[in-house]
Write a structure and sequence with these properties.
With about 220 residues, this protein is α/β, with parallel strands linked by helices. It is about 25% helix and about 25% strand. It comes from Piscinibacterium candidicorallinum.
Length: about 220
């Protein structure tokens, strides 16, 4: 896995944010037909899309997380769910596009920041690689896509190594891998190398998303 691939999809401009609704479900798009998130309007804190439920696979390893982080906000489904389900945990969501943050708050019921919830506008790689993140996260959920949906924005061994360093001992990362013609095997190989083989892939969901689960060795 070359470092070039890790940054080849990095956006230089913010993708436009658009919204659609159908049969009681509100969808988030980045100016294309690809769905970047969804919310059932009558149940805004539920996980509506199949793959988001798989992104919670870390619950099988961690009973009482102190710090949960999402890289990529989207429609804030995972952020809202974790904020409600884990009232004793701190929740941090990192999102580059300020329009996505504003849209999540206006149209997808994302709560305002409080003593537990923090939404940070920042580049995911720069944020996760900061020395202050070292061993500070119990559960890390990585879901980084742009308008093309051609593959993860960051998807290299060096990026996943930064994620591993940010995890506390025993911490778990879940990664959404999806893309038209994207090589899942290469993505899995990058995670495998970064986590010294402590990872597994869940079965794909109907939409084609597939979640990789990786754990940092306990102390």
């Amino acid at each position: 896995m070359s470092p070039a691939r890790s940054r080849s999809h990095a956006a230089t401009e913010y993708d436009p944010v658009t919204i659609s609704e159908s049969e009681g479900i509100r969808y988030l798009h980045f100016g294309s037909e690809w769905v970047q998130g969804a919310m059932r309007i009558r149940r805004p804190f539920d996980l509506e899309i199949d793959y988001t439920r798989d992104m919670m696979a870390w619950e099988g390893f961690i009973e009482a997380p102190e710090h949960i982080v999402q890289l990529g906000l989207g429609a804030a489904s995972l952020t809202k769910y974790c904020w409600r389900q884990y009232p004793k945990a701190r929740i941090t969501a990192v999102e580059l596009n300020p329009q996505v943050i504003a849209c999540a708050r206006q149209f997808f019921k994302l709560p305002a920041d409080d003593d537990r919830l923090s939404v940070v506008q920042a580049d995911a790689w720069e944020w996760i690689a900061h020395p202050r993140r070292k061993a500070s996260i119990d559960a890390l959920q990585v879901d980084l896509y742009d308008a093309t949906a051609s593959g993860p924005v960051y998807d290299g061994e060096d990026f996943y190594a930064a994620c591993r360093k940010a995890l506390a001992p025993g911490g778990v990362m879940t990664v959404n891998v999806f893309g038209r013609g994207w090589g899942f095997e290469d993505s899995f190989a990058a995670v495998f190398a970064a986590f010294s083989g402590r990872c597994e892939a869940l079965d794909p969901v109907d939409a084609g998303n597939r979640i990789i689960v990786a754990q940092k060795l306990p102390a």
